[in-house]
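Deliverable D5.2: sample structural annotation.
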Amino acid sequence: MSQAFLHARTYLRWYILLALLFISVLLFSVILREDRNGILTFVVLDIGQGDALFIESPTGTQVLVDGGPGKALMKEISTVMPWYDRHIDMLVVTNPDKDHYEGFIPLLDKYAVDVVLESGTHSPTPEYVTFEKEMIDNKISKILARRGQIIDLGGGAYLQVLFPDRDVSGLSSNDGSIVMKLVYGDTSVLLQGDSTAKIEQYLVDLDGDNLKSTILKVGHHGSRTSTSEEYVKQVFPEWAVISAGKDNSYGHPHKETLGILSKFRVPIIGTHEVGRIVFHSDGKGFVLD
């Protein structure tokens, strides 16, 4: 092998290394320069018959509220997070029904997660056992949600836990669902998992004025077991969003629920009709993409 050839191969290696270094520095620079311009993002992901909500604060803190069924979340997450970002700050499991957490199982194999917020209700299913094992294997901290907790997302955005306000281990998964309020400036989203009309009324009686929100994420996929008249009256939303699968076997959203929302002239947007739903807030108002 000639000396000229050896020198040429050596130079080629250096050029490749320098090119890779340049690309790495450029990529790191792009990541650092990402500017959300004071915008909060709230997305109802299109994962079929279940719940999966994505939140990104003005400072880039990312939260997934529920993970939907099966593996649909893995496809959807790529539409709201860049390919190089493999870290999620917090997962929230509003209740341990499969259509709220199952998608987190494959997610934990691909993404680093700091903490999981749970309601405190229990599930004996093999899938939930697998999910809990994944959390242990990945050394992810677990926190029980309790009323009064404020989760700072940065940039003035925060999550406020409204329910549970007690040990809910003896309640049904729906009655024990986490109810939270996402707040950013003058805008807010009321998130309630599968919370039922019974818990809605409890919250109305407990602190009805605090329920007022710009967007209502409708409980239990639009089931008639949630979204009572008194509750909608107190929330007084500008939009109602529903996460349900197209042509699902449950008939969600039910006509009774749609009727109540229409009575209060609340515009309704559902994943079963339009797919993924994306909102942006500058702290003064929400804009629908």
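Annotation notes: The chain has two domains: 1-33, 36-288. The mean pLDDT is 91.
The annotation will be released with the project's public dataset once the embargo ends.
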